[in-house]
User: Fold these one by one.
Assistant:
Number 1:
Amino acid sequence: MSKISEQHATGSTSKPTLAVFKFASCYGCQLSLLDAEDELLAIAHQIEIAYFLEARTRALEGPYDIGLVEGSITTEHDAERIREIRRQCRFLVTIGACATAGGIQALRNWSDVGEFIQQVYATPGYISTLATSTAITDHVPVDFELRGCPINTAQLVELITSLLIGRTPRVPNYSVCIECKLRGTVCVAVAQGISCLGPVTQAGCGAICPSFNRECFGCYGPQELANVTSLCERYEERGEPRDHLVRLVRNFNGYAPAFRAAGDALEEESHG
Amino acid sequence: MQGLIDALKEDGYRVIGPQVADGAVVYDELESLEQLPLGVIDEQDGGVYRLARRQDAGYFDHVVGPHSLKRYLFPPQETLQQLQLKDGGWRVEPQQFDEPPLAVIGPRSCDLHAMAIQDRVFLEGPYVDPGYRARREGLFVVSVQCRRAAATCFCHSMKTGPRADHGFDLALSELDDCFAIEVGSERGGRILAAVDGWKPGAPTIVDRANDQSSQLERSMEQRSTTEAAPGAPKLRQLDTQDLRDLLLNNLDHPRWEQVADRCLACANCTMVCPTCFCSSVSEVSDLTNEHVRRERTWTSCFTAEHSFLTSGVVRNSTAARYRQWLTHKLSTWIDQFDSSGCVGCGRCITWCPVGIDLTEEVAAIRETTK
Amino acid sequence: MKPNIQVAATVDAANPWATHAVRIRAIEQEVSDVASYELEFEDSAVAERFHFVPGQFNMLYLPGIGESAISISSDPDVPQRLLHTVRAVGSVTRALARKQIGDQLLLRGPFGSAWPVDLFRGQDIVIAAGGLGLAPVRPVIHYIMNRRGEFGKVWLLYGARSPDDLLYTSQYDCWRETDIETHITVDLGDNQWKGNIGVVPSLFERLQLDASLTRVLTCGPEIMMRFVIAECLAQKIDPKHIFVSMERNMNCALGFCGHCQLGPAFVCKDGPVFTYEQMEPYLNVEDF
Ligand SMILES: Cc1cc2nc3c(=O)[nH]c(=O)nc-3n(C[C@H](O)[C@H](O)[C@H](O)COP(=O)(O)OP(=O)(O)OC[C@H]3O[C@@H](n4cnc5c(N)ncnc54)[C@H](O)[C@@H]3O)c2cc1C
Ligand code: SF4
Ligand code: SF4
Ligand code: SF4
Ligand code: SF4
Ligand code: FES
């Protein structure tokens, strides 16, 4: 985690550089990155920011100290591009559910891609698409995953700050429930019988949804020891229809292994 | 009651008391009597908490909710220290503890026992936690004597209730027509004397209050062995005989793996437990790292961070973490602090999303051990 | 597990979070990723009060980065010359590795229990250390050397992965001269290595121990300590006479944070040094 600051200390006078790379992502992620731009600008005197927006095609002027990658890999061209980015970045961070778990685009992994394209694009002939939407980690090694759909900009700033200072970023991998309890929220699963994904979801959002009497939708992906099967069994016993549960676990992070396995198992049971 | 709230406020206390929010009775700022959960009871079972209205229920016929005194004495997040970098050296800013003293209305007997247990952690060891001490010294406790128990309560097993006999400044017994108030400290007496309209009652009131407590105690014993009504959950009980050794002699029992199939490692049990004291200290700073705040946050033995070493996480499975929780609560706590770490409040049972019940886990281990 | 815990003169029991400022007076690179730091208190009054017993540790704090438990590795009879030997493994220790002479750190301590060498007068002592585990026992070596005549036979068994990982190599001769029988071993030798190859526990074979008279101190990776203990038990050494130093995550060193628990023990205040008798029920339990 101290790679960046080590370089800092060894006398290089130039500022660390940061580049942002975008791949296919949902609206939420783009918004959150716009949001984060303000925060990133605020730290601009410490760090050189090089933005590479989706549309640009000019050659990369690497290398960069920190690369933030947002979005998931959906085309052959993407797959090549991410390999080049990996070569250019010393510390590669994926941000958002799209980049870390394939994101909501990953829903197409469960459906027929051809059909999907026909529905979305007028002229399907021009689209070349990998059969699936896959996470960045499926293509290149990633140094850190910043979860969330959208990401929490405070976590992004904490990550960059930590990289610069050389500390372990405070990005816990425990459950959303802990954040609920820290803020004193009454558990919606226990007190209202709502099927909440918080116990199996990684913290980071500050447990916002339960504080508005809504269930956690799993935006930050599975927590470290996610036991999705046990939770779903419990909710089913309590009367939650199985198809609701399948939809719940196949949300933004449906392609993350723990969620994917549980979703598939639930579906199989209901078909079998 | 209102007189008591006013007298406390008059004396400079911030008053906290039970009230209904988001489907539960929680602690919050109390201005008036009206906010108290009159006519409300809570039905609790493994992973279930529901409020219900009951005609004959008073202000305090709910029992323990998701919050406890722990939130106030050992807050979920707190600044330990602030430092400023100046001329190549760190200056530590003096720590202020100038929040107004707190009066909490509503803690039950089990809660007072839990507070005494946390006192042992933060005040009675070789070192004293200054923040905890400041808050603890300022705390004014208006305890409430239970006259109802939830199905998750087992203070009768842990010898921590239901009747509160010490550790409070004042203790309220809600009777059908009035409150009986017991004075537990000198300042309790002083506040009571300042309550508008308060007058010492007839000795019979005291008897009625005591009767109410003993009646509850008897019924808890009974309800823990027989079902109150068909289908109604039995009251929990925990056989504490040789419990320390029972668990420590069974560190390799298959039950740990079995409970891990159900356990979510979500940490709710430890968060709601009024005695759990684990915390992490972390650094909060700006990008230049010239101003640093050290922050202490609740954590749990259900997290990886709790047993993290650079060489690996010591307790790297749900089974190992559940075993840490249960053996700490019921066994090793006794070695550390001369008492069980469990006061039988039942919060961990109610607030576990999958309803894992420690009394059941202990019984299962006991059953398969000679 | 409630020994009488003595609060050190440099720790304020009523405000144990308070730190002392120290400056780095000297740095010695021991092996590639390990360096020893000599620290000097900024406040001379604190320096005067500072005393420690062998086995104790300090919490070294780098604001904004974090705090780490680090054993004191210097001579307890010369507390003014305070040394820590640190391996750069993670954020705090790597940040420390970037520090230079004259830089400031903050420190709390000393904390923890002692290797009870003062009780070992007239007895034989085996010190079995692996890797960085030599640092926490070095104060014991100093202590014995300062009063060598008061102890019986003394053996030091020390091993590291390779010759390049051996700590304090310049000291071995000096230790041998003071009649500390020093055996060094490595897991993997190289071209120049002419010494022992093998793990520390295997060195026990060559010792002629008087079981009733022998006290064993061991510090190193848990797995190594387990094998050392097995050797000791095979030689009929009393579990009460085997001392181990344990390591667990530490966030406070005060018994508040709960991270360092190992069964009934808080490693920070009941330990880090325990008798094997205390640890026996837990040392072999997986993931405990
Ligand atoms: C009693 C005791 C004495 C020690 N003596 C020494 C010594 O003399 N020399 C030395 O180099 N190391 C020693 N260690 C280990 C040292 O504390 C860790 O290597 C160090 O805390 C790692 O911190 P980090 O931030 O560099 O690593 P990271 O991997 O970034 O760790 C993050 C945090 O986890 C905790 N942590 C991680 N590993 C350990 C560990 N092994 N022990 C305790 N906490 C840990 C710390 O709170 C640390 O800040 C000792 C540990 C203990 C418990
Ligand atoms: S509301 Fe959801 S996230 Fe919060 S504690 Fe309950 S189950 Fe966990
Ligand atoms: S272990 Fe459970 S029942 Fe016991 S005190 Fe804690 S929360 Fe209450
Ligand atoms: S170790 Fe676990 S059970 Fe014990 S106090 Fe900490 S969180 Fe609670
Ligand atoms: S016992 Fe229940 S509350 Fe505790 S970690 Fe397991 S699932 Fe969560
Ligand atoms: S280090 Fe915090 S309790 Fe031991």
Note: The CA atoms of residues 179 and 224 of chain C lie 25 Å apart.
Number 2:
Amino acid sequence: MKQEEVNFGKSDQFNLTMIPGSFARRMRTCLIWQFFRFTVINIKMLIVVSKSH
Amino acid sequence: MARLIIMGGGVSGHTTATFAKKWLGEEHEVVVVTPNSQWNWIPSNIWVGVGQMSKKDVVFPLAPVYAKAGIDYRQAKAVSIHPNGKEGSDESYIIIESTKEGTQGQTEELTYDYLVNATGPKLNFDATEGLGNGKGELGNNTVSVCTADHAVHANIELKQLFEKARKAKQDGTGERQKILVGTGHGMCTCQGAAFEYIFNIEHEAKKAGVRDMIDIKWISNEAFLGDFGMGGLHMKVGGYAVSSKLFAESLYAERNVDWIIGAHTSKVEAGKIEYELLDGTMHEETFDFAMLIPPFAGVGLKGYDKDGSDISDTLFAPNGFMKVDAKYDAGAYENWKASDWPETYQNPTFDNIFAAGIAFAPPHLISKPMSSPNGTPINPTPPRTGMPAGIIGKAVAHSVCDMIKKGKENAHLHKASMADMGAACVASAGKGIFDGTAAAMTVYPVVPDFEKYPGTGRDTDYTFGEIGLAGHWIKHILHHMFIYKAKLKPGWTLIPE
Ligand SMILES: Cc1cc2nc3c(=O)[nH]c(=O)nc-3n(C[C@H](O)[C@H](O)[C@H](O)COP(=O)(O)OP(=O)(O)OC[C@H]3O[C@@H](n4cnc5c(N)ncnc54)[C@H](O)[C@@H]3O)c2cc1C
């Protein structure tokens, strides 16, 4: 059984939400993708910071 | 020469003091009264609480920094404010009580021309039976990560629990350990800190190879997961605008963390809590290790008039936080507006007194008010995180400097409404350069403005969130950046609040 499916079965609360599959989980620590996200998140944060000062 | 006194040298007060001194120069005096000898980057206490950082990584001594900046530093706590002076003198003053070794308990009067209250929260452990020790401090039944010392202790207890779990696994006894993390009262804020702690524990338990022996549960006063005291937020993901509820629930389910929400923890004992739910039912939950955030209150400053009469009600709201230019009579939830939130943080009675950071009294909640059929309020109080605390501190410094330099009549009061300000939050979900994760979020504005942004109350172009390693890198960089800035190292003013 896939890991996400195991947790769906653990409780009703878990069953009614979304759980990332292996691809989404891998992307969270994939260095190349995360370097890209690092740049994007920083830009977004800088925009919010500049709008707030 | 004017004298500005800042009570509280935390995130907000330190920002006010350092900018005010920079802008006022040698001509005017800036005094900081704060009981702590060390500055603490509080967000990183989470990592101290799981043994990933030591206390010395998150604190540094204040005295040399203030000496370098030319700030008069008093290691003391402010006790009372006397805005109209005393018999025979019109000079405003505060009374402070030393917390420095050698002079502890000695009191002193300090006169001021301008006063900023940045005393942050009182960690009100005693509001819940058994959460405190009856003397206003953390009791023996649970741990806390609110101060660096608390976090050091929390880590010791956590590691003991991991050891028990490891032994049970080795011996094959099957004895499981139970961890409970969340809020210790129906009126708590700071759910974000508890959120970070629970996922850091989960991450560490996995690394220690004992996750399968530990049940981890969340308990909180939020009406839904992902409320965070801000009424939740909606973000754009994959072409959808979705509620933070969905994302929070997803993370808890993915990491196998069960949850109880809409809960007021009414009693804490060794290994057990009692709580009331929004439907009025009473329940119990057992634990082997629990970290429950206490509710916050004002630090208990008093106000006195010239004749010695108590004017605390004029200066402070009933929760002990200082009254500022907020609309405190907005009434029912349906009438709440973004414009109820303060802009200048000036006290309405005394124009030379301001409050910054957690010390100011918010006009009302941000989340929808809720209570159980028994009349117990169960709702998060508004968060005032690091970024708003810093921005407000800087705006107040600006206003006071203008008042000192241009005179009260010509001064421009600087605005920093939380309904017109965003916040960038990075909530750690586990530390590690290659396997760490954090939820990086921005929200704009912090207080929803349903007139400007009908529907979600926020600008969904600037309100987003995602979880990943990049968030962890940002959190780690912020740790170093903010400590660097607080130490006033070269270029510190270039680092935003
Ligand atoms: C565990 C934890 C994790 C957190 N993580 C994050 C995060 O990741 N991101 C984020 O943005 N925010 C986070 N926060 C919130 C953040 O720490 C606060 O928003 C911020 O510290 C508020 O700043 P402040 O100056 O108002 O209060 P504080 O920083 O608490 O400063 C108040 C100061 O006043 C002093 N004081 C108290 N009483 C007196 C008195 N009588 N006289 C004089 N001085 C007094 C105190 O000693 C203290 O130095 C976290 C909070 C906690 C507890």
Note: Chain A has a mean pLDDT of 93.
